[in-house]
Specification:
CATH architecture: Orthogonal Bundle
Number of domains: 1
CATH topology: 434 Repressor (Amino-terminal Domain)
Order of helices and strands: HHHHHH
Number of strands: 0
Strand content: under 5%
Shape: globular
Structural class: mainly alpha
Number of helices: 6
Radius of gyration: 13 Å
CATH class: Mainly Alpha
Largest sheet: none
Length: 81
């Protein structure tokens, strides 16, 4: 299971967002979300769409998804140099 898939699974479970609810918000089939939930990493384009849909459903979930997926990448770079 990839990092994006793990992050998505954790967020959906933590925020009690169903796979179907995310699929509807994204305008895609639930089967696509199910594949990501069960271990197939979404593409970079889909990660952006997931984040947008999560932001509509729960802005905190979107923020936490990005944080889980990317970690402190920006903070680490900002502290350098």
């Amino acid at each position: 299971m990839g990092r994006a898939s793990q992050s998505l699974r954790q967020i959906l479970e933590s925020y009690q967002i169903s796979q179907n609810k995310l699929a509807v918000a994204m305008g895609i089939s639930r089967a696509n979300v199910g594949r990501w939930f069960h271990g197939l990493d979404p593409s970079a384009e889909n990660i952006a769409e997931i984040t947008k849909a999560l932001k509509q459903l729960n802005p905190d979930a979107a923020r936490d998804f990005v944080q889980l997926y990317l970690g402190d990448i920006l903070e680490d770079e900002a502290g350098e140099g």
